Amino acid sequence: MPIANAIREALGSASLIRKMFEEGNQLKKQYGPDKVFDFSIGNPDIEPPPAFHRVFIKLATEDKQGSHGYMPNAGFPEVREALAHKASKEHQVTLDGSHIIMAVGAAGGLNVVFKTILNPDDEVIVPRPYFMEYRAYVGNHGGRLIEVDTLPDFNLDLAAIQGALSEKTAAVLINSPHNPTGRIYPAKTIAELAALLSAHGKRSGRLPYLIADEPYREIVYNNRTVPPILSAYPESLVVNSYSKSLSLPGERIGYIAVSPNISHKDGVINALIYATRILGFVNAPALMQRIVAELTYARVDVDVYARRRDAFKQVLDKVGIPYAEPEGAFYLFCQAPGGNDGAFVDHLKKYRILGVPGSGFGKPGWVRFAYCVDEKVIQASGEAFTHAMETFVHPANR
Hints:
Layout: H1 5-12, H2 16-31, E1 37-38, H3 50-61, H4 77-91, E2 100-103, H5 105-117, E3 123-128, H6 133-139, E4 144-149, H7 158-164, E5 169-175, H8 187-204, E6 209-213, E7 236-241, E8 254-258, H9 265-278, H10 286-294, H11 302-319, E9 331-335, H12 341-349, E10 353-354, E11 356-357, E12 366-370, H13 375-391
Parallel strand pairs: 1-10, 3-4, 3-5, 5-6, 6-7
Antiparallel strand pairs: 2-8, 7-8, 9-12, 11-12
Helix pairs in contact: 3-10, 4-10, 5-9, 11-13
């Protein structure tokens, strides 16, 4: 039997991130891991905090009935209460456990949200560049992703968002700290976006949701903070995970936080819980739920990422590759010399340097490098970058 048309089409434009990651693995087998400079995928290499291992061992070895069985689809009540306390502080609202739905990572959480809110042909506005899997997440549930450009500094272009709003707009999706640019959207911008959405709702009779994807909230530099969302706009939902903050991407644990002021709150929460069940997640992993509840305020050492960022900036500065200054996350988004990101990435591969074309994020002419790799790898890449730049011929000059 043939595969579905939608999947066949999607495979033709499969994630450039994964493609580069797989190419990196092949190069490492061929040349050895220390001879390949793989900056393709945001896969944290920092170990989880020491407290994680202690809590993991304690909970994995305790003999408590029901520890690994089904629980309410939204998660263990005590876990939801613990995370509600933390989210209340971050978003300057009063949440209790009923406002938290445990999720199978941020990706699982976003799919639950879109399953809950989207009708066929509903639209979700996203600023460009953006994490390209968003298109699949929205499409999974019958929606259409509407791309809008950002400002030159990658802050939100509110005029562009306003121009994209329509009676079909179900939500605006933002990601801060941002992948791939590292931008943190300022509180003033969030407040202006909230006012814009409220005004549109009054005119159209349909208030769009504001969905914030926040897996990098804990990874910020120079004492910056990420502005609250749930207190800024009533019709908001926040999706978070522990993939980055605790270096647990493979454990697939996260949560959805619902604004206490959202319209039809009980219906929205019940729908999110129902969607969690019928999408086949059933519930988030039981053991991981209990672990993160005990590590509510733990996080990886962000100073390690800051040192890597600075080391990578030195490499790029030396060879003359411009980049956006990362305020958070662990990516450097760089301008491709000559403006052809595909040609530049292909050239870098000759020197065993792996990045992801900005086209993979809806932003041609740029390249993303992930610096969640050992600092020694970053420093060692300097010579390869130098040789690559010395031999690179701009496509326009060929």
